[in-house]
Amino acid sequence: KQAEKAVHQKKEQSKTKCRKARRRHINLVAEFNRRQRKNIWLETHIWHAKRFHMVKKWGYCLGNSPTEKSYRACYRAMTKHCLLQDLSYYCCLELTGKENELLKQLARICSIDAGLTFKEACCLSGRFEGTLNLYRADRYPEDMLGPVTFIWKPRDGSENRQLWIWMHPALKQDILRELKAIFQCSEPEEIYIPEPVTTSVQEEKQMDIVLSLGKKRKMEDKEGEKAVPVKKIIGDSTRDPFQSYSWISQTTGIVISDRTMEILRYRLIGPLSHSVLTETLKAASLQTV
Question: What is an annotated GO biological process for this record, any one (predicted)?
Answer without folding.
Answer: tRNA 5'-leader removal
